[in-house]
TrEMBL record:
Keyword Ion transport: no
Gene3D superfamilies: MFS general substrate transporter like domains (1.20.1250.20)
Molecular function via GO: transmembrane transporter activity
InterPro entries: MFS, MFS_DHA3_Transporter, MFS_trans_sf
UniProt-recorded name of the protein: Major Facilitator Superfamily protein
Chain segments annotated as transmembrane: 47-71, 92-109, 159-177, 184-203, 279-300, 320-347, 400-418
Record-linked CDD domains: MFS
Length: 439
């Protein structure tokens, strides 16, 4: 059944568009397969078990995650600037080379030093990847005259990413049970990443970076002026703050609720131990990712009737309310009710990203899209880095329900001053700001 009709408006033309035409476009299919392959990380559900089995302590594993997080945090914005200046396609290919090198070192590694190198390489891949592919999607939609359909397109491409996560969770179970050791999962994960690198190589060269008039400035000059242009746009800054705080706090809450899911499963298993827990955890996260995929693919229908700014604001408040529900249910509810609220939170988060992509796409200047999206990712990492130990300290002192309640009240209060608005006036093109053509 074909998708409903849509109208795309520009200053020059009005085009009647059948959304099924967009979905049949070869590049749109490539965008979808990119996300699908990227999320086939079969080792992910068992990474902690693998590192513990290698003889590392929990403190050493915490240091490994800190190494990865620090590299991502430090390189997020520079990597976005590099993508916008050097080329997004080139940078994505480089990021997959870092990923593959990381998997190989994990496979052969035996000591803390080996695993530190592997985590560092993985962090480099994460930092180089963030924002670059979404910027290429924006560029392609503009070229095709489909930019108003970015919520629809990004929602569908993200849905395929989540389908990849769901399939990965399912496939990882028989792989983990059938392979000689967990470390072989890293080698299996190399295969889809090689496929993604070849896929990126097949993208047209004109997606590499935006065309500019005149001589392109130096990297340092471009970077300083690009960041200044982003920070001067108060509407865009509010959108980035709303997105990064939401995503950062979600990461923290998700980590606190995950043990509850494991306890629920352990309480319902017949008693065949770790094997059953592995199977049911894989199924549980498969269901979560499938539900998130459905939310991401369908959120464009809401966007047809409600503004993205309103949806961003309301979802921020809803997450605050959900955190308060988690606090209440942790005191007076059952583990199943906590898991149900977590399920709603997880699905809502996956539905919110296409809304952010739509609103941010209207506000970003063409020349610095990867930079802007890297700023969002870095800010989310910073929020998580600050919130995780703070909420952990509160939970140690007064209990987990109080930590959830503090998060809820914080979000509801902050959103009174953080409410984002739709873009009303065009911003001076970044290429003119950088080259100084307009004073």
């Amino acid at each position: 059944m074909p998708e409903p009709q849509a109208l795309y408006h520009t200053k020059k033309q009005v085009i009647s568009l059948d959304r099924s035409t967009i979905l049949k476009d070869p590049m749109i299919w490539k965008f979808r397969f990119y996300g699908f392959l990227k999320n086939l990380k079969f080792f992910e559900p068992f990474l902690m078990l693998y590192l513990l089995g290698a003889g590392l302590s929990l403190f050493q594993i915490g240091l490994l995650y800190s190494i990865r997080g620090a590299i991502i945090y430090l390189l997020e914005i520079p990597s976005g600037l590099l993508a916008d200046h050097w080329g997004r396609k080139k940078e994505l290919i480089l990021c997959f080379l870092f990923y593959i090198a990381s998997f190989v070192v994990f496979f052969i590694g035996k000591t803390m030093t080996h695993f530190s190198v592997a985590m560092g390489l993985f962090g480099l891949g994460e930092a180089l990847r963030s924002g670059s592919h979404k910027a290429m999607i924006y560029t392609y939609l503009e070229k095709q005259g489909w930019f108003d359909e970015k919520t629809f397109v990004y929602g569908r491409t993200r849905a395929w990413s989540l389908l990849g996560s769901a399939l990965s969770a399912l496939i990882a179970v028989p792989l983990a049970l059938g392979l000689p050791a967990y470390r072989w999962l890293f080698l299996v994960s190399v295969l889809p990443y090689i496929g993604d690198m070849v896929l990126i190589w097949s993208y047209p060269d004109w997606l590499d970076k935006e065309e500019t008039s005149g001589e392109r400035p130096s990297f340092s000059s471009f970077g300083v002026k690009a960041l200044i242009s982003v920070m001067r746009d108060r509407r865009l800054v509010k959108v980035l703050l709303s997105s990064s705080i939401y995503d950062g706090l979600f990461k923290v809450i998700k980590d606190y609720v995950q043990p509850v899911l494991a306890l629920i499963l352990m309480g319902t298993l017949a008693g065949d131990g770790d094997k059953s827990l592995t199977i049911w955890l894989g199924i549980t996260y498969c269901v979560l990712h499938l539900a998130g995929s459905a939310a991401s693919a369908s959120v464009w229908r809401l966007r047809r009737r409600i503004s993205s700014a309103w949806l961003m604001n309301v979802s921020f408040d809803v997450m605050g309310a959900v955190a308060l529900l988690l606090a209440a249910f942790s005191l007076w509810g059952s583990p199943l009710t906590v898991a149900s609220v977590f399920f709603v939170l997880y699905v809502m988060k996956d539905g919110r990203r296409p809304i952010f992509a739509d609103l941010c796409g209207d506000m970003m200047d063409r020349e610095v899209r990867a930079t802007v999206l890297s700023v969002d990712s870095q800010m989310a990492s910073l929020v998580a880095m600050v919130a995780a130990p703070l909420l952990g300290w509160i939970a140690d002192g007064t209990g987990l329900p109080v930590a959830f309640a503090v998060t809820g009240f914080f979000m509801l209060s902050l959103n009174r001053i953080l409410k984002v608005q739709s873009r009303e006036l065009a911003v001076l093109p970044i290429e003119k700001q950088i080259t100084g053509e307009v004073k």
